[in-house]
C-alpha cells in the first residue's frame, strides 16, 4: 500500500461525475440482467418480447453493492492496492457481474460476452436463464471466492483470505440480513486473531438497507449509538455513511473509504515499523442506503423503494401489464444509458475512469483464483516419523500424536513462507496434535495472563470455539492459495454440514471452469471419535458426518479410515498433497495397535482396501468360508480379536480378513472414481460367502454403498446403532453389538452348518458378554481378557 493520502472533504466535481457514471452504468446493467433478453440499449421502445418470460433475481441489494464496487475501484486505483472483495449479501450477482463486465474481466474470461451491445445482450439473457449463470455470486463469477447463496460466512472467509497475505486488503460487504446469523456474529471476533505484522487487513462494510425478504433487519432498526456500542464492543471503530441523495452519498463514501484505509495503513505501520503490540481497533464502514435504491418508488400504488418489496423483482408482470412495462422502461432510461455507453454499446471513457488496470481489477485479482498462487507443501519423508512394526500388533501408539510430529515439521518448514495453518475449535492439544506448538504458537491478539501457554501474536495455529468460524477461516485461506488442516471432534463437525456442502458445490463447479486453477484440498481430521468417549458419553457420540459427505459430488469427496499410526501418516500425506477435494480422515487419538509397517501402509492405502493375509486362516487352496471386513481403528481391533477367537475355537474354518481404508472403494466404479469394478469386489469379498463387516459408523451406510454388489444378501454389517452412554471402551462396542464375541456369533450364525457344529462355541461367546456386563458394573473397567488383549496371530 502506498503512503496514506489526505482525506478529501469534497470530491472534485469531475471525479464525482465519473464515479456517479460508473455507478449508474452498473445499476443499469443490474436491472437489465434481471429483466431483459433483447433491446439491451433501448434503441427502440421496450416491448413485451424484449422481457424475459421468467423474471428471477435480486434487485434490492444491487445498488449498494454497485456503490461499494465503484468506490473500491477508486481507492484501488488511487492507492495501487492489492484488494479482494467478499460479497456477502445473498443473491447480489447482478451487481458483481455488471462490474466485472464494465472492467473487462468478464469478457477476458468469457470472450463471447463482449463489451458491446451484442455482449451486453448475452450478459442480460444468460442471467438466471437456462444454460446461463446463477443469480448469486458463484464460482463462474470472476473475482469471487464466496458463494453468495447461503448466508453467514462472508466475514470469516474474508479473514481467512487476509491471513498471511500482508499486502492484501480484503473488503467484506455484510448484508444486514446475513448479520443476524450466528456464524456471522461469531466471526466478528476474528479481529482478535489478525496479526497486523504478517496478515493483511479486513475492511468490513456493514450494508444496512433495512430489510430481508419480508421483514425488517435487526441491526438496521437499532439506534445508531446502540449499534456503535455493539461494533466497538467487537473491537471495531465504526465510520458511518448514510443517505439516499447520490452525490452526497458518493462524497461520504469516498471520505469513509479514505479514512478507513488511512487508519489501516497507520495501524500496520505502527506494528511493522514501530513495534506496537497493542491489539488494533480496525475500522468498519456502516453503509445505510435504501433497499432497491434508484428503483421504482411505487408499483401498483404500494411503496417499493426503501421497503422489503424491492428485495427481488419489483415488478413481476411486465410482459402482461402495460403499466409495469412503461415503469420498467422509465426506470432503465432514468440511468441515461446514452451517456454511459457509446453507439456500439461499449462503456464510455468517463464510466471507466475509476477502474484500475490489469490484476488490480477486483475481477482479475489472482487472490480470487488462489490456485495461481499455490505452492507445493514441503512435506517430510514419512519414514522419519513412521513407527517401527516388527510384527502386527506388537506395539501401540496414539496415531494423532504421531501425526502431530509431522505437522510440526510442516509448520516449521513453512515458517518463512507462511502458507499452512492448523485450525480447530479449542482441541489441538486434546486431539494430541500439540507438537505443532514447538513450531508455531496459537494465534492470539487479545490480552494474556501469566498462566497462558503457547499464545503467540504471530502464530498459525488457529483455535476458536466456533466450528463455523474455523471452517470459514480455512475455506478463505485455501481459496486464496494456501494449505491447511481442520482438526475437530467427530461428533461436532456436523455443525459445519451446511458450510461444507457449499464448498463441495464450489469445487464441483470450478472443476468445469478451465480458468480456475486447482486449490489445496479441504482436509478434516476427525478424532475423539464415537468409540472412545469414555467420560463424555452419548452427547459426544455421532459418526454420521461421513454419511453426509458421501452424499455429495463423488468427484470431490474422499473418506478415509486409517486403522493405525502408519496408515494415518500415509493418508494424511496424500490428503495434504491433493487438490480440489474434501478429504475426511477419521482416526483415534487413544493408544492403538500398530498393524502395518510404513511400506505396507503405503501399499494398503494406495489400494484403499485389501486382504490382510497374516490375519486370516485361508490357505489359498479354496474360497474362504467367511470374510471378516473392517473399516476404522476400533472395528479393526474387534475384527482381529474375533479372527483370533475363530482361529482358537474353530481352526478348520477358512477366514479372510479384509481392511478398508478408503470407504468409497465399496461403491461401483461407475459411481465414484475410487469405486471397485464388480470383478475386483467379487475377488475381494466373494459373491457367495457371508461377509461380517465391522464399520466405524452407522451400519446402513455400508449397505447403501454396496447394495448393487453381488452377494449383498450375504453382507451383515455391525456398527454404531445410536446406543451410547458414559461407559468403558469395550462396553461401547458391546452395547452396539460390534464386539469380538458378537462377531464370532455372527460367523456361527451365517456360515452354513456352523450353527449346529459350533453351538458350544457360540454359547461361550454369549457367556463372555454376560461376564463383561457384570464385571464392568462391579469394577468399572473392562475384563482383563479384553483390556490386556494383544494379537498373537
Automatic annotation (TrEMBL):
InterPro entries linked: Phosphoketolase, THDP-binding, Transketo_C/PFOR_II, Xul5P/Fru6P_PKetolase, Xul5P/Fru6P_PKetolase_C, Xul5P/Fru6P_PKetolase_CS, Xul5P/Fru6P_PKetolase_N, Xul5P/Fru6P_PKetolase_ThDP_BS
Xylulose 5-phosphate/Fructose 6-phosphate phosphoketolase N-terminal domain mapped to chain residues: 13-372
Co-factor(s): thiamine diphosphate
EC number: 4.1.2.-
Enzyme class, UniProt record, top EC level: lyase
Stretches that traverse the bilayer: none
Keywords, in A-Z order: Lyase, Thiamine pyrophosphate
Xylulose 5-phosphate/Fructose 6-phosphate phosphoketolase C-terminal domain residues: 589-791
Coiled-coil region: none
GO molecular function: aldehyde-lyase activity; magnesium ion binding
Gene3D superfamilies membership: 3.40.50.920, 3.40.50.970
Keyword DNA-binding: no
Highest rank taxon of the organism: Bacteria
Record carries keyword Lyase: yes
One Pfam family cited in the UniProt record for this chain: XFP_N
Alphabetical GO biological process terms: carbohydrate metabolic process
The family this protein is said to belong to: Belongs to the XFP family.
Name this protein carries in UniProt: Probable phosphoketolase
Amino acid at each position: 500500500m502506498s503512503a496514506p493520502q489526505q482525506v478529501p472533504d469534497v470530491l472534485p466535481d469531475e471525479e464525482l461525475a465519473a464515479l456517479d457514471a460508473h455507478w449508474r452504468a452498473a445499476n443499469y446493467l443490474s436491472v437489465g440482467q434481471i429483466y431483459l433478453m433483447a433491446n439491451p440499449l433501448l434503441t427502440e421502445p421496450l416491448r413485451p418480447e424484449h422481457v424475459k418470460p421468467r423474471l428471477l433475481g435480486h434487485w434490492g441489494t444491487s445498488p449498494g453493492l454497485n456503490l461499494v464496487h465503484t468506490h473500491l475501484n477508486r481507492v484501488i486505483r488511487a492507492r495501487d492496492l492489492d484488494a479482494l472483495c467478499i460479497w456477502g449479501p445473498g443473491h447480489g450477482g447482478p451487481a458483481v457481474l455488471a462490474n466485472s463486465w464494465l472492467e473487462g474481466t468478464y469478457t477476458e474470461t468469457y470472450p463471447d460476452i463482449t463489451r458491446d451491445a451484442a455482449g451486453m445482450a448475452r450478459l442480460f439473457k444468460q442471467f438466471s436463464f437456462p444454460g446461463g449463470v446463477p443469480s448469486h455470486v458463484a464460482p463462474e463469477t470472476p473475482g469471487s471466492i464466496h458463494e453468495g447463496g447461503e448466508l453467514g460466512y462472508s466475514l470469516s472467509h474474508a479473514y481467512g483470505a487476509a491471513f498471511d497475505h500482508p499486502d492484501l486488503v480484503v473488503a467484506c460487504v455484510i448484508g444486514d440480513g446475513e448479520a443476524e446469523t450466528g456464524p456471522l456474529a461469531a466471526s466478528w471476533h476474528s479481529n482478535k486473531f489478525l496479526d497486523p505484522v504478517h496478515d493483511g487487513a479486513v475492511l468490513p462494510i456493514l450494508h444496512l438497507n433495512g430489510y430481508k425478504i419480508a421483514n425488517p433487519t435487526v441491526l438496521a432498526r437499532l439506534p445508531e449509538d446502540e449499534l456503535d456500542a455493539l461494533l466497538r464492543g467487537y473491537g471495531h471503530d465504526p465510520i458511518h455513511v448514510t443517505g439516499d441523495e447520490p452525490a452526497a452519498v458518493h462524497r461520504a463514501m469516498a471520505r469513509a473509504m479514505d479514512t478507513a484505509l488511512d487508519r489501516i495503513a497507520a495501524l500496520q505501520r505502527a506494528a511493522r515499523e514501530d513495534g506496537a503490540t497493542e491489539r488494533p481497533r480496525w475500522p468498519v464502514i456502516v453503509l445505510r442506503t435504501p433497499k432497491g435504491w434508484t428503483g421504482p418508488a411505487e408499483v401498483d400504488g404500494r411503496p417499493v423503494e426503501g421497503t422489503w418489496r424491492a428485495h427481488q423483482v419489483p415488478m413481476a408482470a411486465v410482459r402482461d401489464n402495460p403499466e409495469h412495462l412503461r415503469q420498467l422502461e422509465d426506470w432503465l432510461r432514468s440511468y441515461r444509458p446514452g451517456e454511459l455507453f457509446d453507439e456500439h454499446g461499449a462503456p464510455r471513457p468517463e464510466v471507466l475512469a475509476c477502474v484500475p488496470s490489469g490484476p488490480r481489477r477486483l475481477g482479475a485479482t489472482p487472490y480470487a483464483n488462489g490456485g495461481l498462487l499455490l505452492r507445493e507443501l514441503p512435506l517430510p519423508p514419512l519414514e522419519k516419523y513412521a513407527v517401527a512394526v516388527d510384527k502386527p500388533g506388537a506395539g501401540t501408539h496414539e496415531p494423532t500424536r504421531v501425526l502431530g510430529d509431522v505437522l510440526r515439521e510442516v509448520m516449521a518448514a513453512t515458517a518463512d513462507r507462511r502458507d499452512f495453518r492448523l485450525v480447530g475449535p479449542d482441541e489441538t492439544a486434546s486431539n494430541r496434535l500439540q507438537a505443532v506448538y514447538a513450531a508455531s504458537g496459537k494465534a492470539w491478539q487479545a490480552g494474556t495472563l501469566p498462566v497462558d501457554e503457547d499464545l503467540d501474536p504471530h502464530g498459525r495455529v488457529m483455535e476458536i470455539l466456533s466450528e463455523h468460524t474455523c471452517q470459514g477461516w480455512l475455506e478463505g485461506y485455501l481459496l486464496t492459495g494456501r494449505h491447511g488442516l481442520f482438526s475437530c471432534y467427530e461428533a461436532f463437525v456436523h455443525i459445519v454440514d451446511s458450510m461444507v456442502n457449499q464448498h463441495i458445490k464450489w469445487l464441483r463447479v470450478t472443476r468445469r471452469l478451465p480458468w480456475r486453477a486447482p486449490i489445496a484440498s479441504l482436509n478434516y481430521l476427525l478424532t475423539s471419535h464415537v468409540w472412545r468417549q469414555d467420560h463424555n458419553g452419548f452427547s459426544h457420540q455421532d459418526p454420521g458426518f461421513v454419511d453426509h459427505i458421501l452424499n455429495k459430488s463423488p468427484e470431490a469427496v474422499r473418506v478415509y479410515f486409517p486403522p493405525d499410526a502408519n496408515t494415518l501418516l500415509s493418508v494424511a500425506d496424500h490428503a495434504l498433497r491433493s487438490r480440489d477435494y474434501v478429504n475426511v480422515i477419521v482416526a483415534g487419538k487413544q493408544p492403538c495397535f500398530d498393524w502395518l509397517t510404513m511400506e505396507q501402509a503405503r501399499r494398503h492405502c494406495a489400494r484403499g482396501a485389501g486382504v490382510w493375509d497374516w490375519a486370516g486362516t485361508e490357505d489359498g487352496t479354496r474360497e474362504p468360508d467367511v470374510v471378516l471386513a473392517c473399516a476404522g481403528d476400533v472395528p479393526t481391533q474387534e475384527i482381529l480379536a474375533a479372527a483370533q477367537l475363530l482361529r482358537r475355537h474353530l481352526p478348520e474354518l477358512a477366514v479372510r480378513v479384509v481392511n478398508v481404508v478408503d470407504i468409497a472403494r465399496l461403491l461401483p466404479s461407475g459411481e465414484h472414481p475410487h469405486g471397485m469394478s464388480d470383478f475386483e469386489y467379487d475377488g475381494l469379498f466373494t459373491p457367495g460367502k457371508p461377509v461380517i463387516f465391522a464399520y466405524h459408523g452407522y451400519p446402513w451406510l455400508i449397505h447403501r454403498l454396496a447394495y448393487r454388489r453381488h452377494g449383498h444378501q450375504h453382507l451383515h454389517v455391525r456398527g454404531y446403532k445410536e446406543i451410547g452412554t458414559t461407559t468403558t471402551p469395550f462396553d461401547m462396542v458391546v452395547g452396539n453389538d460390534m464386539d469380538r464375541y458378537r462377531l464370532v456369533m455372527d460367523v456361527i450364525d451365517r456360515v452354513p452348518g456352523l450353527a449346529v457344529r459350533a453351538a458350544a462355541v457360540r454359547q461361550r461367546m454369549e457367556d463372555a458378554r454376560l461376564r463383561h456386563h457384570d464385571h464392568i458394573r462391579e469394577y468399572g473397567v473392562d475384563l482383563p481378557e479384553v483390556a490386556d488383549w494383544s494379537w498373537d496371530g
